[in-house]
């Protein structure tokens, strides 16, 4: 386990989302409410910068992103310690994908900084991107290539030599159970196979930091277990993994750190045990995010009571 | 329901306009252009109305036939059919086929070409004001003509789309399907030349045209004006029958398209080994080139962009024979082959993130794409330039012709390399019919094409100027100069275009990706 430098922060949101913020037990200051003007340029002091001297594997400071009227990410700070298995959870539309896109150089933030092993990603994209392996969500692959071609492409694009690429392509296809479909075009893959081949592309250059957006979506249980094992081995050997997911159980079992995001802000972050504070991660998540409806009001959907 | 579809189309258009100022500019230019044409045609129609019935018939049937024919064929070879309201998106809704066809037909009229055609066809009714008994038939004929235009364009694109989308044998099928369409024009012009010796051929041509689906809706009014009600009724039957056949064909095509879904043929296709990835240099640039080459061969949108290339010599031969116009073949092909790269990033779509996420600088991306286009474009351009020399028997002009061809190719490739890292516009998605135009993509894309083509023209001027001088004078010195300048200046433009495109890519790649993602 890495050194305990992360502060646990937990703030409760008012039902309307932008009301007064209640500060959590471990965090002295209150989170800034969503401002309606320019956000501050200086990163908020929420995350101690590079505490302990050793740079975090991935650090995100004061990220903001607005799409038209909607502020998708409103001042997100995250510190992913090196060697951690970091889960990012949040409801739909919380800003997870936007945050991860900005953290991997795919989407330019309006404000804020991204540090990959201490290197400013947006100031020197080539350096930062060479350390990252990325599996984004909601975008397609070059699906007119075969599986083997696609992984080869990812490897060659990152300047690896042909022999190494060829060997790793074989290893990855075997590990992900795709050998039989190595020569099938990716366009003809199922959703789960597509996720797996995208994961292979993210892994082929043995990155220092892996950022995976919804890697288990549509993946069958056996493949998911294989992927978890691969990722766990990778973390054990000193790699760092960031995954986003909806599945709390999975995150609780798999990750050692977690951040809960909603409404474009971090509600709580830290080690799993600190964040869940005794209860299950799911209960804690629901308590923090709120918004559970009782399921009443859809009476017409209950076919037994309808008409007849 | 029809009103719903039209409202949907208008909403999509408005949202598209709100998103990009370029689309507004494109739309305004298109509207001005369309209105200009409409005004000119209406003035001509007014002048026409004072002429004899025979003259009016001549003009209306010829013009009307061209209009219908254009609606049927132009979407296949040029701009595509607006796919804003794509029938495949309604696959899950329980809509009667009849409603959908009616809705899509009306939606087809919303747009610059649709509005212009509507105004012009309604204008034709006015030409008959001196023959009151023909006014009723004129209204019927105009409406039928309009319906034939819109329904015909939907039918041809719906029915022919699967031919071109199918991966295997795609090129062959596409060319075979297009050949008759593309040759009708040239054959017509040849016929015209051969026949124009005998002075009064036109009335006969028009008489024949009047009995075809293209001319019938316009000719029936003329028959009515002359009191030949039997012929008029027969032509009404022809027009109505054609419309019915088109509707049935369209309906069948829609059924097939809805079942097929947006994906093309679900046959699992396999490749053997790594293809180009095993043969090109194992560098990032080589990898980009290998990927692009693979796409040139596997993605029907690239084929649709250059489908006209193998037909150009035939078309030029029919329209110019062995005249000097044939010598334009090389430069034309060079321009087309080079310019295809201008839509490269747009064709990538969201998979472009692979490049953005990789630690490469812009020059790698640009150079890789340019290499791929060069590997294909140089041989094709040179071969077709040689073909033009052989066909015209003017091998003495080899130097200037080759100089101009290669020069235009490199210039076009260079400009396209710069343009495509700045501008992306909506294109049919991979696997969609290459004949569809995405919403608002047409106007923005057209504008980009115009600006880029202008740049290619200006930058290529020294080369083409020297080449023309060489061809006209037959001077060897000028010919050598054209070749040297063509290759040298072309290479310079290409290198500068790749560099400029590369530095724009470095600054704006995430923004490009953001736009591609917003296209969905």
TrEMBL record, chain B:
<protein>
    <recommendedName>
        <fullName>Transporter</fullName>
    </recommendedName>
</protein>
<feature type="transmembrane region" description="Helical">
    <location>
        <begin position="134"/>
        <end position="151"/>
    </location>
</feature>
<feature type="transmembrane region" description="Helical">
    <location>
        <begin position="172"/>
        <end position="191"/>
    </location>
</feature>
<feature type="transmembrane region" description="Helical">
    <location>
        <begin position="446"/>
        <end position="471"/>
    </location>
</feature>
<keyword id="KW-0812">Transmembrane</keyword>
<feature type="transmembrane region" description="Helical">
    <location>
        <begin position="58"/>
        <end position="81"/>
    </location>
</feature>
<feature type="transmembrane region" description="Helical">
    <location>
        <begin position="324"/>
        <end position="347"/>
    </location>
</feature>
<feature type="transmembrane region" description="Helical">
    <location>
        <begin position="101"/>
        <end position="122"/>
    </location>
</feature>
<keyword id="KW-0472">Membrane</keyword>
<keyword id="KW-1133">Transmembrane helix</keyword>
<feature type="transmembrane region" description="Helical">
    <location>
        <begin position="229"/>
        <end position="250"/>
    </location>
</feature>
<feature type="transmembrane region" description="Helical">
    <location>
        <begin position="477"/>
        <end position="498"/>
    </location>
</feature>
<feature type="transmembrane region" description="Helical">
    <location>
        <begin position="301"/>
        <end position="318"/>
    </location>
</feature>
<feature type="transmembrane region" description="Helical">
    <location>
        <begin position="368"/>
        <end position="391"/>
    </location>
</feature>
<feature type="transmembrane region" description="Helical">
    <location>
        <begin position="397"/>
        <end position="425"/>
    </location>
</feature>
<feature type="transmembrane region" description="Helical">
    <location>
        <begin position="21"/>
        <end position="46"/>
    </location>
</feature>
């Amino acid at each position: 386990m890495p050194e305990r430098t992360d502060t646990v922060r937990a703030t409760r949101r008012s039902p309307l989302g932008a009301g007064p913020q209640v500060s959590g037990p471990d965090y002295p200051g209150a989170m800034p409410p969503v401002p309606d003007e320019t956000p501050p340029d200086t990163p908020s002091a929420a995350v101690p910068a590079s505490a302990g001297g050793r740079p975090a594997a991935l650090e995100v400071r004061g990220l903001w992103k607005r799409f038209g009227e909607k502020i998708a990410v409103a001042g997100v700070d995250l510190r992913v310690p090196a060697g951690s298995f970091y889960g990012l959870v949040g409801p739909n539309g919380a800003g997870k994908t936007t945050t991860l896109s900005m953290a991997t150089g795919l989407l330019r933030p309006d404000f804020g900084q991204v540090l990959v092993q201490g290197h400013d990603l947006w100031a020197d994209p080539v350096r930062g991107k060479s350390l990252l392996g990325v599996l984004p969500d909601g975008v397609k692959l070059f699906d007119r290539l075969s599986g083997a071609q696609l992984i080869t492409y990812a490897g060659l694009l990152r300047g690896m030599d042909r022999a190494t690429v060829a060997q790793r392509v074989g290893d990855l296809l075997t590990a992900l159970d795709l050998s039989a479909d190595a020569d099938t075009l990716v366009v003809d893959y199922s959703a789960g196979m597509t996720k797996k081949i995208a994961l292979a592309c993210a892994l082929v250059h043995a990155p220092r930091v892996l950022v995976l957006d919804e890697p288990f979506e549509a993946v069958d249980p056996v493949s998911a277990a294989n992927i978890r094992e691969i990722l766990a081995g990778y973390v054990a050997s000193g790699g760092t993994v960031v995954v986003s997911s909806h599945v709390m159980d999975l995150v609780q079992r798999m990750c050692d750190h977690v951040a809960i995001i909603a409404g474009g802000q971090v509600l709580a972050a830290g080690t799993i045990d600190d964040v869940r504070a005794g209860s299950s991660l799911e209960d804690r998540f629901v308590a923090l995010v709120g918004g559970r409806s009782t399921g009443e009001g859809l009476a017409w959907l209950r076919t037994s009571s309808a008409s007849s | 329901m029809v009103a719903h579809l039209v409202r949907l189309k208008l909403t999509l258009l408005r949202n598209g306009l709100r998103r990009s100022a370029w689309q507004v500019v494109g739309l305004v230019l298109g509207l001005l252009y369309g209105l200009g044409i409409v005004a000119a045609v209406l003035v001509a129609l007014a002048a026409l109305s004072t002429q004899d019935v025979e003259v009016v018939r001549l003009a209306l049937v010829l013009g009307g036939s061209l209009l219908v024919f254009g609606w049927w064929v132009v979407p296949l070879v040029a701009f595509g059919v607006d796919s804003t309201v794509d029938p495949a998106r309604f696959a899950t809704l329980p809509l009667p086929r009849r409603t959908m066809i009616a809705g899509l037909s009306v939606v087809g009229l919303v747009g610059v070409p649709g509005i212009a055609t509507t105004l012009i066809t309604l204008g034709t009714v006015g030409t008959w004001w001196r023959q009151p008994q023909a006014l009723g038939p004129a209204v019927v004929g105009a409406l039928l003509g309009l319906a034939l235009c819109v329904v015909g364009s939907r039918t041809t694109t719906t029915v022919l789309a699967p031919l071109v989308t199918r991966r295997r044998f795609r090129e062959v099928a596409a060319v075979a399907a297009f050949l008759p369409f593309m040759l009708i024009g040239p054959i017509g012009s040849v016929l015209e030349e051969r026949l124009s010796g005998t002075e009064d051929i036109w009335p006969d041509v028009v008489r024949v045209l009047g009995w075809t689906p293209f001319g019938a809706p316009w000719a029936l009014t003329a028959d009515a004006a002359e009191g030949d009600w039997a012929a008029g009724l027969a032509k009404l039957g022809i027009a109505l029958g054609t419309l019915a056949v088109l509707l049935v064909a369209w309906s069948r095509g829609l059924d097939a398209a809805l079942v097929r879904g947006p994906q093309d043929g679900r046959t699992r296709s396999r490749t053997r080994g790594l293809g180009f990835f095993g043969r090109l240099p194992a560098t990032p640039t080589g990898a980009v080139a290998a990927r692009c080459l693979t796409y040139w061969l596997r993605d029907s949108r690239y084929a649709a962009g250059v489908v006209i290339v193998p037909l150009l010599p035939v078309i030029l031969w029919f329209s110019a024979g062995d005249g000097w116009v044939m010598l334009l073949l090389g430069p034309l092909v060079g321009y087309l082959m080079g310019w295809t790269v201008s839509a490269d990033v747009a064709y990538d779509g969201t998979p472009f993130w692979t490049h953005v996420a990789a630690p490469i600088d812009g020059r790698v991306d640009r150079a890789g794409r340019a290499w791929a286009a060069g590997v294909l474009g140089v041989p094709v351009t040179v071969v077709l330039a040689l073909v033009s020399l052989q066909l015209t028997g003017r091998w003495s002009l080899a130097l200037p012709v080759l100089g101009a061809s290669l020069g235009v190719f490199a210039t076009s490739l260079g400009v396209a390399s710069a343009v495509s890292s700045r501008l992306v516009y909506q294109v049919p998605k991979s696997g969609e019919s290459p004949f569809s135009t995405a919403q608002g993509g047409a106007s923005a894309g057209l504008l980009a094409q115009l600006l880029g083509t202008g740049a290619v023209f200006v930058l290529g001027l020294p080369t083409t100027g020297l080449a023309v001088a060489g061809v006209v004078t037959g001077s060897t010195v000028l010919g050598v100069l054209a070749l040297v300048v063509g290759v040298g200046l072309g290479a310079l433009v290409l290198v500068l275009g790749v560099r400029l495109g590369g530095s724009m890519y470095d600054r704006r790649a995430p923004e490009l990706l953001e736009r591609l993602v917003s296209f969905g």
